[in-house]
Amino acid sequence: MTRTITVEGMSCGGCESAVEEALSDVAGVTGATADRETDTASVEGEADAASLVAAVEEAGYDASA
Hints:
This protein is α+β, with helices and mostly antiparallel strands and 65 residues long. Helix content is 34%, strand content 35%. A 4-stranded antiparallel sheet has the order 2-3-1-4, covered by helices on one side.
């Protein structure tokens, strides 16, 4: 399953990498791609939206599902 979440505050490639790493650490995630141009992250796997949002916020970005 692919889920897209909104991520605000990414301004560079390092930000995208930080968000991708945070999402990849969530149980059930098999892949994650962040895009600062669209303020989104696409996540592959079975993780629930609340866990994804919490991981991104813990990394220092605003997120919503």
